[in-house]
Amino acid sequence: FAGGFPGEFISSILEQSDINTEFIKVNEDTRINVKLKSGQETEINAPGPKVTQEQFQALITQIKNTTSEDTVIVAGSVPNSIPSDAYAQIAQITEKTGAQLVVDAEKDLVETVLPYRPLFIKPNKDELEVMFNTTVKSDEDVIKYGKEILKKGAQSVIISLGGDGAIYVDQHQSIKAVNPQGHVVNTVGSGDSTVAGMVAGLSMGLNIDEAFQQAVASGTATAFSEDLATRDAIENIKSQVTISVLDGE
Predict the structure, then answer these.
(1) Which one from 192, 209, 227, 232 is the annotated catalytic residue?
(2) Is 192 among the catalytic positions?
(3) Distances, alpha carbon 81 to alpha carbons 56, 89, 107, in Å
(4) What distance in Å separates the CA atoms of residue 78 and residue 103, rounded to the nearest whole number?
(5) What's the pLDDT tens digit per position in 126-148?
(6) Which of 48, 101, 169, 206 would give a disulfide with 211, using CB separation of 3.0 to 4.6 Å?
Protein backbone atom coordinates (compact mmCIF):
# COMPACT_ATOMS: atom_id res chain seq x y z
CA PHE A 1 0.00 0.00 0.00
CA ALA A 2 1.33 3.46 -0.83
CA GLY A 3 -0.22 6.89 -0.50
CA GLY A 4 0.48 10.62 -0.66
CA PHE A 5 3.89 12.19 -1.12
CA PRO A 6 5.80 9.51 0.86
CA GLY A 7 4.17 6.78 -1.26
CA GLU A 8 5.10 8.55 -4.48
CA PHE A 9 8.66 9.08 -3.21
CA ILE A 10 9.05 5.35 -2.44
CA SER A 11 7.68 4.36 -5.85
CA SER A 12 9.92 6.76 -7.76
CA ILE A 13 13.09 5.78 -5.85
CA LEU A 14 12.43 2.08 -6.53
CA GLU A 15 11.71 2.71 -10.20
CA GLN A 16 14.96 4.70 -10.52
CA SER A 17 16.69 1.54 -9.27
CA ASP A 18 14.92 -0.56 -11.94
CA ILE A 19 12.76 -2.27 -9.32
CA ASN A 20 9.22 -2.94 -10.52
CA THR A 21 6.43 -1.72 -8.26
CA GLU A 22 2.77 -2.64 -8.09
CA PHE A 23 1.60 -0.74 -5.03
CA ILE A 24 -2.06 -0.46 -4.18
CA LYS A 25 -2.83 3.25 -3.82
CA VAL A 26 -4.40 4.37 -0.54
CA ASN A 27 -5.92 7.76 0.26
CA GLU A 28 -3.82 8.69 3.29
CA ASP A 29 -0.04 9.20 3.41
CA THR A 30 2.35 6.28 3.81
CA ARG A 31 3.71 6.66 7.34
CA ILE A 32 7.04 8.26 8.13
CA ASN A 33 9.04 6.87 11.06
CA VAL A 34 11.71 8.90 12.82
CA LYS A 35 14.83 7.39 14.40
CA LEU A 36 16.73 9.55 16.89
CA LYS A 37 20.38 8.78 17.50
CA SER A 38 21.85 10.24 20.67
CA GLY A 39 23.96 7.48 22.15
CA GLN A 40 20.88 5.28 22.40
CA GLU A 41 18.45 4.81 19.53
CA THR A 42 14.91 6.13 19.93
CA GLU A 43 12.12 5.32 17.50
CA ILE A 44 9.06 7.48 16.83
CA ASN A 45 6.80 5.33 14.66
CA ALA A 46 3.70 6.92 13.16
CA PRO A 47 0.44 5.01 12.63
CA GLY A 48 -0.03 3.66 9.11
CA PRO A 49 -2.62 4.94 6.63
CA LYS A 50 -6.20 3.65 6.64
CA VAL A 51 -6.66 0.76 4.23
CA THR A 52 -10.19 0.12 2.96
CA GLN A 53 -11.72 -3.33 2.60
CA GLU A 54 -11.63 -2.86 -1.18
CA GLN A 55 -7.89 -2.01 -1.11
CA PHE A 56 -7.17 -5.01 1.12
CA GLN A 57 -9.04 -7.26 -1.32
CA ALA A 58 -6.88 -5.85 -4.14
CA LEU A 59 -3.82 -7.10 -2.20
CA ILE A 60 -5.44 -10.51 -1.69
CA THR A 61 -6.08 -10.70 -5.45
CA GLN A 62 -2.38 -9.98 -6.11
CA ILE A 63 -1.39 -12.81 -3.74
CA LYS A 64 -3.84 -15.17 -5.50
CA ASN A 65 -1.97 -14.50 -8.76
CA THR A 66 1.32 -15.84 -7.37
CA THR A 67 2.80 -19.16 -8.52
CA SER A 68 5.45 -21.61 -7.33
CA GLU A 69 8.01 -19.31 -9.01
CA ASP A 70 7.26 -16.56 -6.47
CA THR A 71 8.38 -15.76 -2.93
CA VAL A 72 5.99 -13.72 -0.78
CA ILE A 73 7.54 -11.85 2.16
CA VAL A 74 5.24 -10.57 4.89
CA ALA A 75 6.89 -8.33 7.45
CA GLY A 76 6.03 -5.84 10.14
CA SER A 77 2.77 -4.94 11.83
CA VAL A 78 -0.79 -5.06 10.50
CA PRO A 79 -2.65 -1.71 10.23
CA ASN A 80 -5.74 -1.49 12.45
CA SER A 81 -7.91 -0.94 9.38
CA ILE A 82 -7.32 -4.39 7.86
CA PRO A 83 -8.33 -7.77 9.31
CA SER A 84 -6.17 -8.91 12.21
CA ASP A 85 -5.82 -12.33 10.55
CA ALA A 86 -4.35 -10.80 7.36
CA TYR A 87 -1.13 -12.84 7.71
CA ALA A 88 -3.07 -16.09 8.05
CA GLN A 89 -5.23 -15.19 5.04
CA ILE A 90 -2.10 -14.60 2.95
CA ALA A 91 -0.51 -17.84 4.20
CA GLN A 92 -3.61 -19.85 3.27
CA ILE A 93 -3.43 -18.45 -0.28
CA THR A 94 0.31 -19.05 -0.79
CA GLU A 95 -0.15 -22.63 0.40
CA LYS A 96 -2.62 -23.09 -2.50
CA THR A 97 -0.63 -21.18 -5.15
CA GLY A 98 2.67 -22.87 -4.23
CA ALA A 99 4.50 -19.58 -3.58
CA GLN A 100 7.19 -19.68 -0.89
CA LEU A 101 6.28 -17.65 2.21
CA VAL A 102 8.79 -15.78 4.39
CA VAL A 103 7.69 -14.10 7.63
CA ASP A 104 9.42 -11.42 9.71
CA ALA A 105 7.06 -10.17 12.40
CA GLU A 106 6.15 -10.22 16.06
CA LYS A 107 5.05 -13.34 17.93
CA ASP A 108 1.25 -13.13 17.48
CA LEU A 109 1.49 -12.62 13.72
CA VAL A 110 4.17 -15.29 13.22
CA GLU A 111 2.27 -17.94 15.14
CA THR A 112 -0.81 -17.62 12.90
CA VAL A 113 1.23 -18.63 9.81
CA LEU A 114 3.37 -21.47 11.19
CA PRO A 115 0.78 -24.18 10.31
CA TYR A 116 1.15 -23.15 6.63
CA ARG A 117 4.84 -24.18 6.53
CA PRO A 118 6.61 -20.88 5.76
CA LEU A 119 10.02 -21.25 4.07
CA PHE A 120 11.60 -19.43 7.01
CA ILE A 121 10.81 -16.97 9.76
CA LYS A 122 13.35 -14.56 11.24
CA PRO A 123 12.93 -13.74 14.91
CA ASN A 124 15.76 -11.99 16.74
CA LYS A 125 16.95 -13.27 20.11
CA ASP A 126 14.59 -10.97 22.05
CA GLU A 127 11.60 -12.09 19.98
CA LEU A 128 12.57 -15.74 20.51
CA GLU A 129 12.57 -15.13 24.26
CA VAL A 130 9.10 -13.56 24.05
CA MET A 131 7.76 -16.43 21.92
CA PHE A 132 8.74 -19.00 24.54
CA ASN A 133 8.62 -16.80 27.67
CA THR A 134 12.21 -17.71 28.49
CA THR A 135 15.75 -16.37 28.67
CA VAL A 136 18.16 -17.46 25.93
CA LYS A 137 21.67 -17.79 27.33
CA SER A 138 23.56 -19.86 24.77
CA ASP A 139 23.69 -21.10 21.19
CA GLU A 140 22.26 -24.39 22.48
CA ASP A 141 19.22 -22.49 23.78
CA VAL A 142 18.80 -20.79 20.41
CA ILE A 143 18.87 -24.17 18.62
CA LYS A 144 16.49 -25.74 21.15
CA TYR A 145 13.82 -23.06 20.68
CA GLY A 146 14.51 -22.85 16.94
CA LYS A 147 13.62 -26.55 16.72
CA GLU A 148 10.43 -25.90 18.69
CA ILE A 149 9.43 -23.44 15.93
CA LEU A 150 10.10 -26.15 13.33
CA LYS A 151 7.71 -28.45 15.24
CA LYS A 152 5.03 -25.76 14.87
CA GLY A 153 5.40 -25.86 11.09
CA ALA A 154 8.20 -23.59 9.83
CA GLN A 155 10.60 -25.22 7.35
CA SER A 156 13.53 -23.26 8.77
CA VAL A 157 14.35 -20.40 11.16
CA ILE A 158 16.96 -17.65 11.17
CA ILE A 159 17.57 -16.18 14.63
CA SER A 160 19.55 -12.94 14.52
CA LEU A 161 21.89 -12.32 17.46
CA GLY A 162 22.74 -8.67 16.72
CA GLY A 163 26.50 -8.12 16.77
CA ASP A 164 27.08 -11.83 17.44
CA GLY A 165 25.80 -12.95 14.03
CA ALA A 166 22.91 -15.35 13.49
CA ILE A 167 21.92 -19.01 13.70
CA TYR A 168 20.06 -20.94 11.00
CA VAL A 169 18.07 -24.02 12.00
CA ASP A 170 16.23 -26.55 9.82
CA GLN A 171 15.34 -30.23 10.14
CA HIS A 172 18.82 -31.36 9.06
CA GLN A 173 21.29 -28.91 10.57
CA SER A 174 22.05 -25.85 12.69
CA ILE A 175 24.56 -23.33 11.32
CA LYS A 176 26.06 -20.25 12.93
CA ALA A 177 27.33 -17.26 10.98
CA VAL A 178 29.61 -14.80 12.77
CA ASN A 179 29.97 -11.35 11.22
CA PRO A 180 33.12 -9.21 11.37
CA GLN A 181 33.26 -6.58 14.10
CA GLY A 182 32.97 -3.02 12.87
CA HIS A 183 31.50 0.39 13.54
CA VAL A 184 27.69 0.19 13.70
CA VAL A 185 26.36 3.33 12.04
CA ASN A 186 22.66 2.59 11.63
CA THR A 187 20.71 -0.55 12.56
CA VAL A 188 17.56 0.55 10.67
CA GLY A 189 16.81 -1.96 7.92
CA SER A 190 19.46 -4.42 9.07
CA GLY A 191 16.99 -7.22 9.81
CA ASP A 192 15.16 -6.56 6.53
CA SER A 193 18.49 -6.74 4.69
CA THR A 194 19.18 -10.13 6.30
CA VAL A 195 15.86 -11.46 4.99
CA ALA A 196 16.53 -9.98 1.54
CA GLY A 197 20.03 -11.50 1.41
CA MET A 198 18.69 -14.96 2.26
CA VAL A 199 15.81 -14.81 -0.24
CA ALA A 200 18.13 -13.46 -2.95
CA GLY A 201 20.66 -16.22 -2.26
CA LEU A 202 18.08 -19.01 -2.42
CA SER A 203 16.50 -17.59 -5.59
CA MET A 204 19.98 -17.43 -7.18
CA GLY A 205 20.43 -21.14 -6.47
CA LEU A 206 23.04 -20.79 -3.71
CA ASN A 207 23.22 -23.62 -1.19
CA ILE A 208 22.01 -22.99 2.38
CA ASP A 209 25.49 -22.14 3.74
CA GLU A 210 26.18 -19.60 0.97
CA ALA A 211 22.71 -18.04 1.12
CA PHE A 212 22.97 -17.74 4.93
CA GLN A 213 26.44 -16.20 4.64
CA GLN A 214 25.00 -13.67 2.18
CA ALA A 215 22.05 -12.97 4.52
CA VAL A 216 24.29 -12.13 7.48
CA ALA A 217 26.65 -10.12 5.25
CA SER A 218 23.67 -8.10 3.96
CA GLY A 219 22.38 -7.30 7.46
CA THR A 220 25.88 -6.43 8.70
CA ALA A 221 26.68 -4.24 5.69
CA THR A 222 23.48 -2.24 6.27
CA ALA A 223 24.33 -1.80 9.97
CA PHE A 224 27.77 -0.48 8.96
CA SER A 225 26.25 1.97 6.42
CA GLU A 226 24.37 5.27 6.67
CA ASP A 227 21.74 3.83 4.34
CA LEU A 228 20.90 0.38 2.94
CA ALA A 229 23.97 -1.67 2.00
CA THR A 230 25.30 -1.63 -1.54
CA ARG A 231 26.18 -4.79 -3.46
CA ASP A 232 29.90 -3.93 -3.15
CA ALA A 233 29.65 -3.52 0.63
CA ILE A 234 27.82 -6.84 0.96
CA GLU A 235 30.38 -8.68 -1.19
CA ASN A 236 33.24 -7.15 0.82
CA ILE A 237 31.78 -8.28 4.16
CA LYS A 238 30.63 -11.69 2.85
CA SER A 239 34.22 -12.95 2.65
CA GLN A 240 34.66 -12.04 6.34
CA VAL A 241 31.52 -13.87 7.59
CA THR A 242 32.54 -17.22 9.09
CA ILE A 243 30.18 -20.20 8.92
CA SER A 244 30.30 -23.10 11.36
CA VAL A 245 28.03 -26.16 11.64
CA LEU A 246 26.71 -26.48 15.21
CA ASP A 247 24.92 -29.76 14.63
CA GLY A 248 23.71 -31.95 11.76
CA GLU A 249 25.42 -32.31 8.39
Answers:
(1) 192
(2) yes
(3) 9, 15, 20
(4) 13
(5) 889 998 999 989 999 999 999 99
(6) 206
